[in-house]
Amino acid sequence: MKIFYIIFISLLFPNNIWSSNVSFLNDLLPASYRGTFELAVSEAKFDDRLDVLGYMDNFSGSKPKVASISEFSASYQFKNGLKFTLEQNNSHAEVIRPSIPKFIETDAETDFYSISYPFSTESRVYEIEFFSTETVQDPTTIDCYEFGTTVIGGSCAEADVKLINSSIYQATGERIYLPVLETTGSSEGSGLNLRIKNKINDSFNISHTISVSREEIALAYNSTILNTTDSFLRGIKINGVATGDLLDQFKNDLPQQTPWTENIFKYSFNSTYSLSKRLALSGRFTFLKVSRDDYLENPNKEDFNSNLLIDLGFFFELQKNVLFYSRLSLSSQYLLGITPISYNRRTNHLFDHPYGQLYVGTLIKF
After folding, report:
1. pTM of the model
2. In terms of Cα–Cα distance, which of 279, 303, 277 is closest to 292?
3. Parallel, antiparallel, or unpaired: how do β-strands 241-242 and 306-319 relate?
4. Which among 134, 18, 224, 330 is positioned nearest to 233, based on CA atoms?
5. 158: enclosing H helix or E strand
6. How far apart are CA 217 and CA 300, in angstroms?
7. 101 cis-preceded (ω within 30 degrees of 0)
8. Containing H/E element for 11?
């Protein structure tokens, strides 16, 4: 059994990956592995060393370089079965580009709250869970942006067109150039999970999870230079193209500024097989279907509405109150239906390829 402990430690400390493990634990762990009060922590990361499906190789332009997350969750179950769960995670993502800006990074924080209650029959347990989520994305600033051979900015040295902060210049005489774009984002969602599990825990467990949820996404940007009506600035021609046409081209490709909603249906087939009292293998197959309300399509890009996921992993009980777990998660359409705030009319091309990521975590139960 020590080999699994060594594997877990080697995965946990060198790197972090994208992760959200509360639903995984609730779907797959039998009741005999659970505690009245539980604390769980996980660390996760995606980078080129973990890109087992060659996701990054599919892009010649913008592509994800690193995605990491730290997660903490706590839950308490009363004697009557009523259970409360709180999860918080902080994520970080980096994107690389062949043109300016060559590097973009974003940070976000997500809170998850749920309340669940089980109903039993002779052979099965039906667990109903109501949940809500809230995600806040930190502001991101793009100083300069490159269109072909033209750079609009910003304070970068390569900028061909710049817009000065007039109020600071008038007050102090200092030349401070305005960035091309400042963005913010947030989302709020709620939903219902129905889990159907075998009442008797034996060496081989099969269960099902049906989930419906709805999440509203709001993205906003602020840009003085994109919204300028100055005829002189918009009329400047660089390499034969008017600056105004370049600004409009960039602006039309940005995410919409009005909120839209993702409606997500999910079905998971879950199985756990115990090799011993301490070690169990796990597998989960998930089908996701997404529909959108008030979403403005990009006529130049294809949208995607379904995703298939396969999770393969193991649980290892180091001692009575400590459980280690790890899994490999593979999806056919990137993170479609998993992180709704990441999908918009600007980024949807990233979801046209299969994706893989590794999860690790620790569960402490009392």
Report:
1. 0.83
2. 303
3. unpaired
4. 224
5. none
6. 21
7. yes
8. helix 2-12
Model pLDDT, residue 10:
29
The CB density around residue 294, as the number of other CB atoms within 10 Å, is 11
Question: One-letter amino acid identity for 197?
Answer: K
Separation CA 147–CA 115 (nearest Å): 49
Q: How far apart are CA 176 and CA 82, in angstroms?
A: 57
Q: Which residues contact 97 (CB under 8 A, 6 or more apart)?
A: 61, 62, 103, 104
* CA separation for the pair 7, 9 (Å, rounded): 6
From CA 278, how far away is CA 362, in angstroms rounded? 14
Query: Tell me: the pLDDT tens digits for 76-106?
Result: 999 999 999 999 988 888 888 888 888 888 8
Q: Beta-carbon neighbour count of residue 42 at 10 Å?
A: 27
Kindly report the three-state secondary structure assignment for every residue of 211-276. EEEEEEEEEEEECCCCCCCCHHHHHCEECCEEHHHHHHHHHHCCCCCCCEEEEEEEEEEEEEEECC
Beta bridge partners of 286: 268, 309
Whether 173 has a pLDDT exceeding 50, the answer reads yes
Query: How many Å apart are CA 111 and CA 73, to the nearest integer?
Result: 10
**β 144-147/150-153 pair status:** antiparallel
115-141 per-position pLDDT tens digit: 999 998 888 899 999 999 999 988 888
Q: How many residues are present in the chain?
A: 366
Q: Cα–Cα distance between 31 and 319 in angstroms, integer?
A: 17
Q: Is the pLDDT at 68 greater than 90, yes or no? A: no
Q: Shortest CA distance to 189 belongs to which of 212, 220, 221? A: 212
Question: What stretch of H or E contains 172?
Answer: helix 166-172
Q: Which residues contact 339 (CB under 8 A, 6 or more apart)?
A: none
pLDDT tens track for 187-212 = 999 999 999 988 766 688 899 999 99
